[in-house]
Specification:
The chain is α+β, with helices and mostly antiparallel strands and 323 residues long. Helices cover 39% and strands 14% of the residues. The strands form 4 sheets. It has a 5-stranded mixed barrel. The longest helix is centred in the middle third of the chain and has 38 residues. Pfam families: Sec62 (PF03839). It is found in: Endoplasmic reticulum membrane. Keywords: Endoplasmic reticulum, Membrane, Protein transport, Receptor, Translocation, Transmembrane, Transmembrane helix, Transport.
C-alpha cells in the first residue's frame, strides 16, 4: 500500500536529526543501550525495546559519561528527550498484539506499526537505525583484510609464518592452562569438602561475567551455600493453634471420659468409652437438681447450665477452661 505523498522516508528523517539527538540514538543503539528483543514487523526481523528500559538506561551512570548528549536530571526529563528523538525515525512505536493460538516459546513476537507515534514508558519501539555507519564500514574492511591475508598465507615471508606459529602455540597453551586450572580448583574444592567444615574455591570468579583481571580476584573464598527462603505458614500462630487444640482435647492433654447422670446427680468421669445415659427421674426432680445447683455446675468433663442441659467439656470455650 502506497503511503501519503508528503511522507518523509526514514533515512531522510534520520539525516535531518540534530547532532545531539543523533548522539542519543547512537548511545541507545550501542552496547549500553536498552535490552534488545526480537520481533517480526511486516515479515522482516527487527529489534525492539520497551520504553521504561530506555528511560532507565538514560538515567544510568553510562549515559553521564557520554559526550555531546543533552543532560538529563530525572526520569521525566529522559521521557521528554525520547519524545524528541521519536519523530526522527531512529525508532518507531509498535504494538504487540496477542495472537489467539499462543506461539511456541522463543518465537519472535509479531509487531504492528502503531498509528499514534508518541512516547510512553509502557509501549514498545522497533529500531529502524543500525548505529553509526563508520563502525559497519570498519568491520567490513577488517573482515576483507583478514580473509585476503589468510588466502595469501603460503606467500608470507618465513619470519611472519614463524611468528604466526608461535602465536598459535601460545593461544593453545593459554587454553590448556585454563582447563588445567579449572581441574585443579575442582580437586582442591573436593579435598576441602572432606577435610574441613566449609569448602573453599580457588579463584571463585574465574567463570563469572567479570573482566579478565577480576576473574582472578580474590584468590580464594568460602563456598557459601544458597540460603533457602522460609515459606510463611498461612493461618494463625502456633501458640493460638496449640491453645485451641488443648481446649478440644481437654485439660493438660487428658481427654475426659463420658459421664453417667442419674436422678439429677453428677457422677465422676468413667474411663470406659460409653454413651451418655438419659436422665432418670421425673421432670420435677431434674428441675430441682438443676435449680439447686445454681446457674452453673462444673465437674471435670461435663458442664451443666441453668436450663438443665448438659454440655461435654470438649464443647467448652478456651476462656471457660482457663477459669
Amino acid at each position: 500500500m502506497a503511503g501519503p505523498s508528503d511522507a518523509t522516508p526514514v533515512v531522510e528523517a534520520q539525516k535531518r536529526a540534530p547532532v545531539e539527538l543523533k548522539a542519543v540514538a547512537d548511545f541507545l543503539r550501542g552496547k549500553n543501550g536498552p535490552k534488545i528483543r526480537r520481533g517480526v514487523l511486516n515479515g522482516k526481523r527487527v529489534d525492539y525495546f520497551k520504553g521504561k528500559t530506555a528511560i532507565r538506561v538514560l538515567t544510568g551512570p553510562a549515559y553521564l559519561k557520554t559526550k555531546k548528549v543533552p543532560e538529563i536530571a530525572d526520569e521525566k526529563a529522559a521521557e521528554e528527550l525520547l519524545g524528541k528523538v521519536l519523530p526522527n525515525a531512529f525508532f518507531l512505536r509498535v504494538d504487540r498484539p496477542t495472537p489467539s493460538p499462543a506461539p511456541p516459546a522463543g518465537t519472535p513476537k509479531t509487531l504492528l506499526l502503531s498509528p499514534q507515534q508518541h512516547f510512553t514508558a509502557d509501549a514498545y519501539y522497533a529500531w529502524f537505525y543500525d548505529g553509526s555507519p563508520l563502525t559497519t564500514y570498519l568491520g567490513a574492511a577488517a573482515m576483507v583484510i583478514v580473509i585476503f591475508a589468510g588466502v595469501l598465507f603460503p606467500l608470507w615471508p618465513a619470519t611472519l609464518r614463524l611468528g604466526v606459529w608461535y602465536l598459535s602455540i601460545l593461544a593453545l597453551g593459554a587454553i590448556g592452562a585454563l582447563i588445567a586450572l579449572a581441574i585443579v580448583r575442582l580437586i582442591f574444592w573436593c579435598i576441602t569438602v572432606v577435610a574441613t567444615k566449609r569448602a573453599i574455591w580457588m579463584f571463585p570468579n574465574l567463570f563469572e561475567d567479570v573482566g579478565f583481571i577480576d576473574s582472578f580476584i580474590p584468590v580464594w573464598a568460602y563456598d557459601e551455600p544458597k540460603k533457602k527462603k522460609k515459606r510463611a505458614i498461612p493461618g494463625g500462630s502456633s501458640s493460638s493453634g496449640g491453645k485451641k487444640r488443648s481446649a478440644a482435647g481437654g485439660v493438660n492433654g487428658i481427654t475426659p471420659g463420658p459421664m453417667h447422670i442419674a436422678g439429677g446427680d453428677l457422677m465422676g468421669a468413667q474411663p470406659a468409652q460409653a454413651e451418655m445415659k438419659p436422665i432418670v427421674g421425673d421432670a420435677a426432680g431434674a428441675g430441682s437438681a438443676a435449680g439447686g445447683a445454681g446457674a452453673k455446675a462444673k465437674v471435670s468433663g461435663v458442664q451443666m447450665n441453668g436450663g438443665g442441659e448438659v454440655r461435654h467439656r470438649q464443647q467448652a470455650t478456651v476462656e471457660e477452661i482457663e477459669e
